[in-house]
Amino acid sequence: MKRKREQVDMVPSEIKSAIDELSTMAVNLKTGGGATAAAADDQTTQVSIKPFLALCNLLIQVLDKIGPTMSVLRQDIHHNIQRLEKFHDSDPSIYWDVVEIIKKEFKEGKAKKGPSCSKAFVWLTRSLDFTLALLQLLVKDFGRNLEQAVEESYNITLKPWHGWISSAAYKVALKLVPDSNTLVKILKLKDEDDETLKKDMQSLIDLLVPLLEQNKDIARAYGLDGLKCV
């Protein structure tokens, strides 16, 4: 029984797991620097699909712990992950790189049509951008009102791309977010203090920034950065 309890205590938090995934991605991180679609063809930019989707799944785990509050965001993330996973599984030797998938859809004229993988990539990036904005606010002040922090993060990352239906759904969700102390407890490891958690969150922020900048460059290169939903 004691050994089992020790094993549970050794399970890393979502924050530490996300740091591990991003550290893996950072090894191969190559910034395209605002490249065009033609320049992107030379493989100067790559996004390994497995660690990227693992990172997105960690965000789902956090949302699950919070409860049904952010179910709209959770559902969107889950569907977009599934779309990319399905395409990857069709030929893992070629589609291990998200850019290869986007390139294929772009050449076939499918990137902006229907439920494409290109759209899934854009919305997963925006969801991670929302997460980054929220982490940055919380690191500055754990005690701040979480509803206000979530709303501010939403307004600068997701709201510009949402129509009135999506905005209305998120507005309802904002009223149900837990308090800051509850979220901090969710993110902590057992017996971890606030300062250690803050350091981990800052490490995650530092790793997320270059990844998201690269992803936004990819979206711009293929004309996907202006996509909106209803």
UniProtKB/TrEMBL annotation:
InterPro entries: GLTP_sf, Glycolipid_transfer_prot_dom. It holds the Pfam family GLTP. Residues 47-187 form the Glycolipid transfer protein domain. This is Glycolipid transfer protein domain-containing protein. The lineage of its organism: Eukaryota, Viridiplantae, Streptophyta, Embryophyta, Tracheophyta.
